[in-house]
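Exercise 7 asks you to align residues with C-alpha cells for two separate proteins.
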Amino acid sequence: MAEQPLADLLREAERVLTASGVWSPREDAEALAAHVLGLTDKAPRPEHPVPEAAASQLRTLVGRRASRIPLGHVTGRARLGGIEVTVTEDVFVPRFPTELLLRWGLSAIEGTKDPVVVDLCTGSGAVALAVAHARPDATVHAVDVDTAALECARRNAAERAEAGDRPVTVHQGDVADPTLLAHLDGTADLVLANPPYVPLGTELLPEWGRHHPRQAVFAGADGLDVIRQVIACAARLLRPGGGLAIEHGDAQIGVVPGLLAATGAFTEAEGHRDQEDRPRCTTTLRRAVPMTTTSTAGEAGLAVLRGELDAIDDQLLETLRARVEVCVRIAEHKREHDVPMMQPHRIGLVQERAALFGADHGIDGTFLRRLYELIIEETCRVEDLVIDGDATGRLPGSRADRGDAS
C-alpha cells in the first residue's frame, strides 16, 4: 500500500477543521493523528510515513471532528491527571481546566494519611481515578445518578485497577438525596465536583450544546441547581477541616461563595482561575463546628445542626422582615383599591401545602406548617396595622428592633 507523509495529512486535516470552525484545528489534527498511529504518549513526527489504511481512518475521524463532535467523543479517550480513560458519548469529556480542580484537591490532602475522597457527578470517573492514581493510600468514592455514565465510570475503574491503581468504589446516587453515602457523614477529607452548571437556554458551541448529554451540561434556570445540592451534600460528608472544590462557569465565580457562606458550614471561599485565566472553580474548607459535651452520636449531630442554624438565624430574620415589608405594600395597595384583605382561614391551605412540600423534600412537616403559619399571621397583622394607619411593618426581633445596623 502507498504511504503518505504525515505532514501532508496534518495540513489537510488542519484546513478541514479550520473551515468547520473548530477552535484548535492544528492541535486537534495532531491529536487525531496520534490516536490513529497509537502514539498516545508523544506527538507524531511530521516525517512519519502513514499507511493508506491509517490515512483513510484519519480522514474519517477528521470528518467527525469537523461536524463538531467533541475530540474526546471522536477518539473515545481522554486524559486527566496523568491517566487516560474511556469516554463515551453518554458522558462529559474531561477538560484540561479540570486539572486545576484536581491539583487543588490533591494539595488539600497532601498531609493526610489514608484520606477519604468523594467525587460527586463523576461522569467518566476521570477525577476520582486520577486521585486514586496519585494517592494509592486514598479510599475514593465516585458518584453519579446517570446509568450510562455509571457504566462508563465502572469500566474505567476496572481498567485502572487492572493497571495497578487502588480500586475506586462507584456508586449510583443523586446528590440531592440526603442519605447519599450516609455512612461517610462527617468523615470525608475531600469532596470534589465538576457538576453541570450551564443555565438552561444558554447558546453554546455545538460541542457542548448539541453533542454532549444535556444532563451533564445544563442545570436549571441559573445553572446552580446541582451546585446547591453539591454544597449541601459536601457539608454533610466532610469532616471539620475537610476540603471542597467545585468547578463552575465564569459568571458563577461571585455566586458560589455566597451559597457556601449561606450554609454557615464552610470557611471563606477562594476562587481560582484556570490556565486561560478564566474563573473556573471555588474551594473552601469545612468549618469546625463548636461541639457541646455529648454522649451519643445523635446528640453530636444535633449540636452540628444547632451550630449551622445559629449561623443562618440572622438571614432568616432578614428574610421574614423583607416579607413583612412586602406585606405592607400589598396591604396599602389593597386599601387604596378597595380589595379584600387576607383572611385568616387561608392559613389552613398554606399549612396543607407546607405539609406536602415537607413530605416531598424530607423536611419536618410540623416545622414548615408553623413557619408558613407565622408568615400568614404576620401578613394579616400588617394589614390590620395598615388599616389602623400604622404601616411600619416592623418585625419583632429584626435588626431594627435589636438596634443593629440594617
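Second protein for Exercise 7:
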Amino acid sequence: MNSSMSETSEIANHFNSDEVLRGLQHHQKHLTPYADFLKDMAKAGVHYYIVDMVGRQVTYTSGRPEEAYTEAIPVFQ
C-alpha cells in the first residue's frame, strides 16, 4: 500500500469553496497526486464528495447545509 494514501488529514472547520475550486483545478491539470488532492480538499473543509453519474456532477461538501461546491462532469467524446 502506498504510505501517502494511508495518512489522515485534519479537515478544516470552515468550508471554503474558492479553495475547493483551486484544489480541483490544480489536480485536473495533473499537478498533484490524488493523496495531495485529498489533503487540499480537507484544508478547504470538504468532508466528502458525492458523484452523480446520471446527473453528471460531483458535489464537494462539508455536510452542512449551504456548504457545497458542485462541478459538472464533462461529456467525453
